[in-house]
């Protein structure tokens, strides 16, 4: 299953296009199926209707756990590193992880969870989070993991959208020198969530929490009441595995749905190939399991391949900027997969933090989440990789389930800050605004994918029409990624960033409309417009133009009120970096906000604003420019 030369890549790629069914059947064959599929693929992108490995029966946890027990039962599956460097790390072997997953699955069963039920998981980055995810999969419950930075309201919206029956949480979580009161946030969320029957609470920070009779249960009590025998539920390849909410350019977040068989095959295959994982290596992905990167490359991808995956509870700069490097040395990490924002943040501390740690175990580096700038790429290469480790700049999305355009370590010749070539099975195409294919090299366009791959989303939960509209309607018969992309002279792909109203803040996807809606909930706000602007560490920052007529000379305080409102409505991750109070917004005669102009102003580039003659009131532009400079 592992590609080891450029020729082998070309051959695999060619086969994946010429005989996609045979290609993916050969790969799927390397996994454990209780019953093989009847049909590899049926699809159309118009409804859309996509089915991989139809009729196949399996359970993903048998692939991630049971099948490794005989040979690798005592091999570390998960190594956990605490937020607090003084706390001992924890190692779960495959055998222990299997036991814990089965036990937890029995707790879920005991509390009435059955196949198909949706379970919300809002937990810290502790081993029990991975256990919880796998426990759901064990019994066929659908997990919906929510990142710890989201507010009660965001959680409630997500829980209600998919009618979750049970919530798994903890008292609190540690992140650097901060604590988040997870249970308190859940308590607030659940005021408006009638479908939730039970809440299982893990003790972690041991902060006082309220425990509601009949609803709230301690994890530690529940786990004592069950045994470790839990046969895996037999799932159809196209049964739902999980929902993960993500933001788009309009409206509320969408529940992206992934199914068992195709997702498993894709996460496992891409993990093994792009990172060139070798048996006994330690793989460290610094993402949070609350995002797709954590799902696919902390949990399912590595475990499906019997790998050792390292889970880190904290942040790279706590207690200081040497923490990541200490972890690499301590656990002899071989593959380090992180985000440009983390690299840029660590760069700003200079080279001293690197000096105390031996990084010689590193063999492969990876980057994900946003375009990486060349400066960060070279710093990562030279100072972390000792100019000796390939960097795989992996482009993909929540919707794609796994890596799409990415170097294969040691196989694809690299170019700095470039996602290089599509992985086998991925058929990218660049189109212009009208949807015409842009052929040849040295061209720019909107990135679409023209053929299905096993890890792709199947629907958006509860609203298939939305899936169709968002991804399959902009250009008929193509999956539209929302990204702009350049194909260079050598046919290499370089992602240039979103072409829709989505901004990428520290690798987190944030819809401008969502932030605007949150700001507009503040009592004094009449209207607002949000755009992204280049930010040295975060990649993009959030810039909000706000109409707020009655400021009463309290602009600074009002800004804080607005930040507080956004924190309440969405969560701290969506707080604007800059707020500018204005008296009007640039609008067309039909009332549409001209974001193009606001983007320019936010970038500080007002020399050439383009044609503003179609504006209803060109005067507002002048005012905004003046204010933005003062
Ligand atoms: C968006 C997807 C999937 C990983 C985490 C983010 C941007 C992701 C890259 C990269 C340039 C990238 C794109 C994409 N993105 N990786 N290597 N180079 N841009 O998942 O939250 O679903 O966001 O992140 O804009 O569309 P996500």
Structural write-up:
This protein has 630 residues and is α/β, with parallel strands linked by helices. It contains 19 helices and 30 strands. Strands 12-11-8-6-7-14-15-23 form an 8-stranded mixed β-sheet, sandwiched between helices. It has a 7-stranded mixed β-sheet with strand order 5-4-17-16-18-19-20, sandwiched between helices. A 4-stranded antiparallel β-sheet has the order 21-22-24-25. The protein is globular, with a radius of gyration of 24 Å. The mean pLDDT is 97. The structure holds 5'-O-[(S)-butoxy(hydroxy)phosphoryl]adenosine (WT7). Residues 246, 291-293, 368-371, 393-398, 419, 481-483, 495, 498, 504, 507, 509 line the site of 5'-O-[(S)-butoxy(hydroxy)phosphoryl]adenosine (WT7).
Query: Whole-Å distance between the termini?
Result: 59 Å
Strand line-up of the largest beta sheet: 12-11-8-6-7-14-15-23
Q: What's the helical proportion of residues? A: 25-40%
The CATH class of the domain at 502-629: Alpha Beta
User: What is the SS-derived class?
Assistant: alpha/beta
Largest sheet: 8 strands, mixed
Radius of gyration: 24 Å
Number of helices: 19
